[in-house]
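Expect chain and fold; see below:
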Amino acid sequence: MKVVNPYLNFPGNTEEAFNFYKSVFGGEFSMLMRMKDAQGMPVPEGQEEKIMHVALPLNSGQVLMASDNCNASTFREGNNYFISIHADSVEEGQKLVNALAEGGKPEHPFEKQFWGAWHGNLSDKYGVNWMVNYEGNGQ
């Protein structure tokens, strides 16, 4: 495993929250992608400017990441976080997703995404939310 990072969800105010975190921790966003930038993904009307993904590198080498949860009916404080794991290979990523999903609730399968990385997410049997990513050249 390369790295583990916190990943937060917000009910539509990610940009406000991350501008606050940037003022606290310093630095600049290494990525800021809006919903309208999602290729081939339906975006609810009025959500085009919401944040699909933002990343704020911290001095420790970790990255604080987040997105807006456009489905307000599923957002609850307490379920608005993920632990994001960056795997060393597609095989390791798939193995982690399979193991963590055992007895839990898979949300999105581990597969290649439009932005080029492999990604999957799930809630484990203890209710912890996980994202697994691989950004290498694996097929």
